[in-house]
Every structure is written in structure tokens, then in C-alpha cells.
Specification:
By secondary structure, the protein is an alpha/beta fold. 17% of the residues lie in helices and 26% in strands. The protein contains 8 helices and 33 strands. The strands form 7 sheets. Strands 5-4-1-6-11-8-12 form a 7-stranded mixed sheet. Strand 9 and strand 10 form a beta hairpin. The protein is globular. The relative contact order is 0.11. The mean pLDDT is 92.
Length: 428
């Protein structure tokens, strides 16, 4: 029997994550910054290394450059050496959309040679876009104890949310006896976390059985449940799919909320500080005599002269005297000038906000964004990378300011609630 720590990990990191809107305009969803100094993928990668697993294949696809730069050769996670490593696995075919992975199972199928070159008893399949803390070694041991062909990590979620997940009905031994993929009328509150342990031989046979089976939740798991030994591995810790703007904002806020259950430091989450806005080279954060900071995360290299409340600031953010940042997430090297007020917003990197600017004007329960009503409906305004907002501009709730909008893009001093400003200055 091969030791659990020799199991092969395949990490799915190619998703578009379109519901994150402009945050994924130039990067894959797992590469989106999170919690000040991290990226979303850091949680899965750290769980892997903290579980003692040594070999990881990362399946990339959509706009992978920043993700690949962040992962490097795996040094930040101590995954370099003769017996350990991170292998980037890009799509194997052409550049057309039709050549891209058609689903999660199709992505694994197209990398069967990587599985073949790393023989192990088990293959662990993960998603790179969840925030959680988990011991995969314990899950592998559970899988073995059940003599399972497939083990699915599952947790209880409110029935009102079950339509977002694959759902399993289990017997008294935790064997999954029925499966519903994103049910509209749920019969269970047990949701799949998108984390699987497969017997290696069983996985290869399943992928070879029918090439039209392109997705685990839709195809592979229902067949396994109907014909073979498929078990649920119960999980009780913190786990969040940050696939929507609201969920992403909530998870960031959880870091600064007491008793939320999330603690990157206690979880020993690692990141590539050399590639993450060069956080390793930043000086300590500086606070002016009149600075006021409440319930916030302030990263290295920040300079705060104004007020920061219930917010997460990445390295290098500047908040000048008289400026106020509330309930917001600011990525690296953003600058908020004097007397500006930022309320319930997410800024991508290198945003500059002029003196007296107001972002987040109006009531929280404002009209949703016109172009993206399913993305922005809770009052959060998004400001894209490299935006330069001129002095005195007012921006409402549920707005989108497209990446690289310069001062000349702001032909009007007011961007109304629910509106989107394009780089050419067009408001819709």
C-alpha cells in the first residue's frame, strides 16, 4: 500500500469565474487577490502542503499568466525538489474556445498522461477557487477505510442555497445512494464541496468509459453512485465558494470578524510574497497622528492618515488625511486622496481616487447594476484596475467603473446608482 502522502493532487484552476465581473477581467478566478496578501488559490495549495501531499498538477486555462507567475515552481509552498513539485498543466489543444476543457472530467481526461507518469493509489481532485481549511490526509484515510471507489467531501448548507451545488443523499454508513446536481427542489441539505478522492484505477476506467462524460457532478458521480462504492466525507469547518461578488466580499469580511471561523495565520496559509505586489519588500504599515482604524486588516506598506473602518487593505494602499474607507476591499497600491469617502466598494490594483471623491453614494438597498443585475445587487461598487477618478466625482451603489478608465473617461461628475462606466466614457 502506498502511503497517503504519496497521493497525486490535481487542482482545477482554469475557471472563468465570470460572476466576479471585472475582478477576473485580466486574471483567472483562483488568482484573484484575497484577504490582503493572499490569492484565492493559496488556500487549496496550502491545504495540500499542510496535509503532507507532495505532487500537484495545476490545470489552467482562462487567462493563466498571473496565476502561473504566482505559483512559480512551488517554492512558496515548499513543493520543489526531487520527490515533490508543482506542474502547470495548460490546455493541450489549440487556442479556440471549442478546444478548451468542456468540463471538470474532460479537463482531467486530457491530462491522463500526467496521472500515468505519477503512479499512486489515490488521486485527489480539488478546485482552486474556494476558501477553506482541510486535512486531505484524513480524507484519504477515510476513503481507504470505506474501501471506496470515490469519496466526496460534503457539508451541510442551508436548503435555500443547495441549488448552487451538487447534493447527495446518504445512508447510515455515509454511502451516497442518490445524487442531484443543482436541484431546484432540494431533498437534502448535504452539498458537495467539489473535493474528491478517487481510486486511481477507478478514475482512469471512468474517464475511458464514455468520452461524452465531461463533468464530475453531471456524469461521473451519478454513474459511480448507481454502480459502485461512493461515500460522503463529512466536513464541519469553514468553507466558502467565493464565486460571486457578495460571497467574495463576505469572505474577506470574515477575516476581520471575530468568531467567523476563518484564520489564515492559524491555518498556516502560505503565499508567494515575492510575486504578490512584492509584499516581502514592503516596510511596516504607517499610521499618522490623526489616523483612525477600526476592525480592519492593514497590510505591510500601507500609509493611513485618515479613517479606515471594517475594511481590508492590501500592501501599499494610501489613505490620506480626512479620507474615509468603510466596508471596502482595496487591492495593492490604491491611493485615496484627501477628504474622499469610499463606502462598500472593491478596488482592483492601482486605483487612484482624487480629492473629495465619493464612491458608494445612496442607500444600501439601491437598484442593481443595469448590465449585471445578478452580479451587483447588494450595494457593492466595483472599480477596475488602474482607474484614475478625478477630484469631486460621485459614484452611486452597484456601479462598475471599467479597468483603466482615466480622468478623461469621466465626462460627467456623477455616475448614478446601477450604472457602468466604460473606458471610452460611455455610461450604460
Amino acid at each position: 500500500m502506498i502511503a497517503a502522502k504519496e497521493a497525486l493532487v490535481l487542482l482545477l484552476a482554469g475557471g472563468v469565474g465570470s460572476r466576479l465581473n471585472i475582478l477576473v477581467q485580466n486574471r483567472a478566478k483562483p488568482a484573484v487577490p484575497f484577504g490582503g496578501i493572499y490569492r484565492i488559490i493559496d488556500f487549496s495549495m496550502s491545504n495540500v502542503v499542510n496535509s503532507g501531499l507532495k505532487k500537484v498538477g495545476v490545470l489552467t486555462q482562462y487567462k493563466p499568466l498571473s496565476l502561473m507567475s504566482h505559483l512559480g515552481a512551488g517554492e512558496a509552498w515548499d513543493l520543489t525538489g526531487r520527490t515533490r513539485g508543482v506542474k502547470i498543466l495548460p490546455p493541450r489543444t489549440g487556442s479556440k474556445d471549442s478546444d478548451w476543457y468542456k468540463g471538470t472530467a474532460d479537463a482531467i481526461r486530457r491530462n491522463i498522461d500526467f496521472i500515468g507518469s505519477n503512479p499512486t493509489d489515490e488521486v485527489v481532485i480539488l478546485s482552486g477557487d474556494h476558501i477553506y481549511h482541510m486535512d486531505f490526509d484524513a480524507m484519504i484515510e477515510y476513503h481507504r477505510s470505506k474501501k471506496a471507489d470515490v469519496t466526496v467531501a460534503m457539508m451541510v448548507v442551508p436548503k435555500s442555497q443547495i441549488h448552487q451545488f451538487g447534493a447527495g443523499i446518504t445512508d447510515n454508513r455515509n454511502r451516497i445512494v442518490e445524487w442531484e446536481e443543482k436541484p431546484k427542489v432540494p431533498r437534502t441539505n448535504l452539498a458537495s464541496m467539489g473535493i474528491y478522492v478517487f481510486d486511481r484505477r477507478y478514475l482512469l476506467d471512468s474517464l475511458a468509459r464514455d468520452k461524452s462524460d465531461v463533468d464530475f457532478g453531471m456524469h461521473i458521480l451519478p454513474h459511480a453512485i448507481a454502480h459502485d462504492n461512493t461515500f460522503a466525507y463529512p466536513f464541519y469547518g469553514y468553507w466558502r465558494d467565493v464565486g460571486t461578488i457578495q460571497a467574495y466580499w463576505e469572505a474577506n469580511m470574515d477575516i476581520i470578524r471575530k468568531e467567523s471561523g476563518i484564520s489564515p495565520e492559524k491555518w498556516r496559509i502560505r503565499t508567494n510574497v515575492e510575486a504578490e505586489g512584492r509584499a516581502a519588500d514592503r516596510p511596516p504599515a504607517r499610521f499618522g497622528a490623526g489616523a483612525q482604524v477600526q476592525t480592519s486588516l492593514i497590510s505591510a506598506g500601507c500609509t493611513v492618515q485618515g479613517t479606515v473602518i471594517n475594511s481590508v487593505l492590501s500592501p501599499g494602499v494610501v489613505v490620506e488625511k480626512g479620507a474615509v474607507v468603510r466596508n471596502s476591499i482595496l487591492f495593492s497600491d490604491c491611493v485615496v486622496r484627501k477628504k474622499a469617502i469610499i463606502d462598500l466598494a472593491i478596488f482592483d490594483k492601482q486605483v487612484q481616487v482624487g480629492e473629495g471623491v465619493q464612491i458608494g453614494v445612496g442607500c444600501d438597498h439601491a437598484a442593481p447594476n443595469r448590465q449585471h443585475p445578478k452580479h451587483l445587487y447588494t450595494g457593492i461598487t466595483l472599480v477596475g484596475k488602474g482607474v484614475d477618478v478625478p477630484a469631486g466625482v460621485k459614484v452611486g451603489r452597484n456601479c462598475v467603473i471599467d479597468s483603466y478608465c482615466r480622468r478623461e473617461s469621466f465626462s460627467q461628475n456623477t455616475i448614478g446608482t446601477g450604472e457602468t462606466l466604460a473606458k471610452d466614457g460611455e455610461i450604460s
